[in-house]
Structure formats: structure tokens, C-alpha cells
Design goal:
mainly alpha; 8 helices
Length: 206
């Protein structure tokens, strides 16, 4: 019998019980090309189920990895073919305003592959990662490599933690989320410092 899922994972129990691996693949896939969906949450819930013997942990990891890579590449295709016009028209429905998108593109252009990997672990960036890579003109082979690396690390981390810690995963997730917030604050400070340096240099040249 499947274990009761803790905290915010509980609402995914019926989905996993009825659809199993299909649910994992579908939710991770659609999240990764911009649709608001609980991809990370269902991955963690599936890991808990795997730890209880309800699912095979290797199958969960392989399906989630494939769905993540395919989803991001669909996002890349959307960004590459539809470009900014598509994002500006439809982005507001997933809280991607033109201004937010412009800033993301600028940051992405500077840091490229590193962002593709790191974005996998950041809520918000994970959903638009592929789209931004496509619109910013990042070469597809380069995106594919870094995207696959990020997906492997992301799937490996959450599947392993959920599988090992089981019903205690909520506490682990809360702790990691707390440090993720510190990392985002540090990242924001770094970006602000880079922008300030750029402005000061431009003023000095003028």
C-alpha cells in the first residue's frame, strides 16, 4: 500500500496512484516548456513512492530525465521559432512580463551554459530556461549538453533524497529551499554589482 505523502505532496497521491510513471513524465514534461505544473513536487512524491516499493526508482529517474530534456527542448524550439513576439504575447499568462524576460535574456547572454544548469534548480527559471535559450540564440548543441547535465543533476538529487528520506522529505525540502533563497539573494546581489560596475564604467568613458 502506498504511504501517505507528507505536507505539500499529499495532493499528488491520487495522480500517482492512478497514473504512476505516466503522471511523472507528463507533469515534468509540460512544466519544462513553460506550463505552470508541479514538476519538481511530483518528482519528489514519486521518489517517496519508490522508497516504499510502489514504483521503481530507476524507472522514475529515467522517465523524469527524459521528460525534462524533451520539455526544455520544446521550450527551446518555441523560443527559437516564435521568438520574443510569442513570449510577449503569451508570457503574461505564466507571469513572464516583457521586462522580466528582457532582464533574463541579458543575464542569460552573459552566463550561457552555467545558467542552463543552475536554472534547473530555480523555480521560475526552470520553466522558461529553454525558451530563453532559444530566443537568445544559444546554439542548440551547446544547450542540449548543458540542459542534459542540469536535468541529470536535478533528477538525481531529488529522486535520491526522496527515495532515502521517504516521509521525512518535507523537512529536507524546506531546509534546501531555505538555502536556495540565500543563494538567490547572493545571485541578485552579484547581478546588481555587475550592473552598477557597468554603469560606472560607462559614465567614466563618457
Amino acid at each position: 500500500m502506498a504511504p501517505p505523502l507528507p505536507g505539500p505532496l499529499a495532493h499528488l497521491a491520487p495522480l500517482l496512484t492512478h497514473y504512476g510513471y505516466w503522471a511523472v513524465g507528463a507533469v515534468v514534461l509540460v512544466e519544462d516548456f513553460g506550463v505552470p505544473a508541479p514538476g519538481e513536487t511530483i518528482l519528489i512524491a514519486a521518489g517517496v513512492y519508490a522508497g516504499a516499493g510502489e514504483l521503481n526508482v530507476v524507472a522514475v529517474a529515467v522517465i523524469a530525465f527524459a521528460a525534462a530534456v524533451v520539455g526544455d527542448n520544446i521550450g527551446y524550439l518555441i523560443g527559437h521559432t516564435g521568438g520574443r513576439a510569442f513570449v510577449h504575447r503569451w508570457g503574461r499568462y505564466v507571469f513572464v512580463t516583457p521586462e522580466r524576460f528582457r532582464k533574463a535574456e541579458e543575464f542569460f547572454a552573459r552566463h550561457g551554459g552555467k545558467i542552463v544548469v543552475v536554472a534547473r534548480f530555480v523555480e521560475g527559471l526552470r520553466q522558461v530556461n529553454g525558451v530563453i535559450a532559444g530566443t537568445s540564440g544559444m546554439p542548440w548543441p551547446r544547450f542540449l549538453v548543458f540542459n542534459a547535465l542540469g536535468a541529470a543533476l536535478w533528477v538525481g538529487l531529488w529522486t535520491s533524497l526522496a527515495y532515502v528520506t521517504g516521509t521525512h522529505i518535507s523537512a529536507v525540502y524546506d531546509e534546501i529551499s531555505r538555502y536556495q533563497l540565500y543563494a538567490l539573494i547572493a545571485l541578485g546581489a552579484l547581478v546588481a554589482a555587475l550592473v552598477l560596475r557597468h554603469l560606472l564604467r560607462r559614465r567614466h568613458r563618457d
